Amino acid sequence: MSPTIDQRRAPVPYAPPADRPRWTRYIIVGSLALLAIWGMVALYILSPPQYVSKFAFVLPGKSGGAKVNLQSIGEASTSSTSPFGTKGINPRVNYKEMLLSDTVIGTAAKALQIDYADFGKPVIKLVDETAIIQVAVKSGSPEHAQRKSTALVESFNERIAELRRDELQRREEGIAQALSIYQQRLDEAQRALIEHKQTSEYVSGRQYEELSMRLERIKGDRVGALAERDQVSGYVAQLARNLGITPQLAASAFILNADQQFREHLANYQTATTTLAVYRSKWGEGHPAVIKEGAKQDSTLDALQQRSFTLVGHRDMNTIKLISLNESGENAGLFQDLLMSFAKIEGLVGKIKQLDGAITQHGVSLKRFAEEAATLDELERNYEIAEAVYTSAVTQIDTSKADIFASYPLVQVLAAPSLPSRPASPNKVLAIVGGVMGSGMAFFGLFLLWKRKQLLQTILSKSGFGTL
Question: In the prediction, which pLDDT does 57 show?
Fold first, then answer.
């Protein structure tokens, strides 16, 4: 049965039985503890020395960029932002994992012709609030530790370069694949534009503007020709009044005067009239020469009147007299002006007809060009867009080659691998201090075990539970 506590019994100080040699057990346990502690200290001190070669990387944080601008075509740009600009992504962590990867360590071990297990894992520390990566590599000799560090740096840089080349190649392949589609679209747009220009009169965007300006100029010329025609018509009317004839008679005279056959009949009539007058002055009316020349005059007059009727629709002799004024007389100059004015009016009328035809033709062309202009503008816009997209893609292939630090930022060796001058382990002072502290803790534990019953009795007595 377990001992019970008697509430009525007075507390009595604990006295260990004299027949129990407890100290022997504590000496044995203490000796074993000291032996284990100092044995491990001795093994640590006697272990082969380990040398640590240290180096450091730094990631510059400055961003860079490039831009290519092709005038009237398009532009392409590329930029590298700061490696620390994206929240939640720290390239130092990526590089740390890369340094600890089997690929980098295996390549470094192969370069030194040692096994992967003999190379070991480097110790990596990311310095807070900086862009520095500190790396430490252990080895059995200072020179070998430095060589391992150097091999690790070279392997790390080689791996980064390989990843960058692979990224650029994949990126270029993707752009080249899209480039073939852009090339096809550009060819289609170019063919459509060429076919339209081959089948249409409207081949340039300036044609519509030039045609519109030309139509406005023609309309202006027509207005000027109409004004000049009205002015000359007024002058003709005034001359007709001065000559005492009607404008219709003056117009008939102009038409007859311009006819070569009528002019010949008029010349023959005038010759016959002159000859007849001469013959009559010499001989009488019954003379055969007078009779013959009179008949000739009558025949030429009939021919003259018949020609007048054919040309102007009447046989008015006033027209013939008016034409005769062109040869001599005081009104010859006025008749000359009249004929020239009528000729000018005819020219102006012809000019106005030509301008009216040109206006009609240009109006039709403008309507047709309006539709073709819209089609041409659309085709040219599609071609320019396709050309800009294709050119931008081509330039992007070249500019993307310069952007090699987009996914893997630039990393530089801040501190070259060091050559350690003293071993990093074993540290004898630290080992002895640890042995002493371990021994003290062992003795303190044995002391607590030695005094445990007395301490428990004191605690129970002060708490009012009696004694054991």
Answer: 93
DSSP string, 200-247: -S---HHHHHHHHHHHHHHHHHHHHHHHHHHHHHHHHHHHHHHHT--H
Rounded Cα–Cα distance for residues 300 and 42 (Å): 162
Block means of pLDDT (10 residues each) for the chain, length 468 residues?
48 49 77 85 77 90 56 52 57 90 92 89 89 90 90 93 87 80 86 80 69 84 88 80 69 75 82 83 80 84 83 71 56 68 81 88 77 79 86 72 74 89 74 84 82 73 60
Of 113, 114, 118, 120, whose CA–CA distance to 135 is shortest? 120
What residues have CB less than 8 Å from 215, skipping those under 6 apart?
Answer: 359, 362, 363, 366
* Nearest CA-CA partner of 382 in 182, 135, 147: 182
Q: What are the structure tokens assigned to 401, written together? A: 């080659």
Query: 56 Cβ partners below 8 Å, 6+ apart?
Result: 132, 133, 134, 135, 413, 414, 415
Q: What is the 3-state secondary structure (H, E, C) of 276-308?
A: HHHHHHHCCCCCHHHHHHHHHHHHHHHHHHHHH
Q: Name the nearest CA neighbour of 256 among 350, 332, 322.
A: 322
Using a cut of 0.85, tell me whether the model's pTM lies above it: no
Largest CA distance in the chain: 211
Q: Which amino acid is at 404?
A: I
3-state secondary structure of 263: helix
Q: Which residues of 298-334 are buried (b: 16+ CB within 10 A; e: fewer)?
A: eebbebbbebbeebbeeebeebbebbbbbeeeebeeb
User: What phi, psi does 418 have (nearest 5°)?
Assistant: -85, 160
- Rounded Cα distance between 154 and 53, Å, is 15
- State which H helix or E strand residue 342 sits in: helix 332-402
Enter the tokens of residue 120. Answer: 């070991």
